Target: GTP-binding protein gtr1
Amino acid sequence: MKKKVLLMGKSGSGKTSMRSIIFSNYIARDTRRLGATLDVEHSHVRFLGNLVLNLWDCGGQEAFMENYFTSQRDHIFRNVEVLIYVFDVESRDIEKDLQYYQTCLEAMAANSQGAKVFTLIHKMDLVQEDMRDQIFAERVQELRARSHPMQIEAFRTSIWDETLYQAWSSIVYTLVPNVSLLETHLGRFASLCEAEEVVLFERTTFLVISHTAPPDSHRRHPDLHRFEKISNIIKQFKQSCTKSQVQFKSMEFRHPTFTAFVDVLTPNTYVLLVMADPSIQSAATLMNIRMARAHFEKLEANQLR
Model:
């Protein structure tokens, strides 16, 4: 199952850096050595086994952009599932950026009706912290006005924090088939394990696929971005393991008020279980994960067939 994803935006907006961090295990500081993308770079990213993201990273130099909209228009914009348009928040020519963006939307409307559109206001770490909310809100308001009647979803992002994982997790979530069925089964698993929360991560990228909590769960965590922070931390830890020629498999965290377990669930996923009851033994939780593997492997296979 292949799904075409377009990654577009002006040259220097940060498209290739974010793609390299999410899909090629780069860390933020290493992206400085990446060169500009010339024309279109194609990546076939295997995600959840049989789901393949056909990612088109489109170079943003003016000559390339003009070519996309003229001689390559049908080729570039046909059969697109998702358009991700990246704006550099510090761009000196925002009006030109917006003109290219609107031309992209016109081409999408003609060639890929029904495709989802995500806009990323990128490099937000360069904006003074107390101004970020205001600037982001102003940019989104402008983008929505320029996008009408198309519906868009916007995210603020930076390669230096968890916002990049939050945005890409949300994007990938829309591409996973029958995700509501997966969430239903995760909810049952959480109840059977008496877990406070259960989170499912894609194995290679460690993007959040889904999460759930039992209806009677009393814990409401104040940090809405905790899963993306976990993605970032564990992915960096996995890279450290690789450098030491050790394979990452599982982790257990203990705290006076909770215990958290990260373990393999299927060949394509990891699961995080958060347990609030300190009387539940680690062996019992690990056995529950082990017993659930066959069920979720079968569910995943049927979903992506």
Q: What stands out?
A: The chain is about 40% helix and 25% strand. The longest helix spans residues 282-303. The longest strand covers residues 258-266.
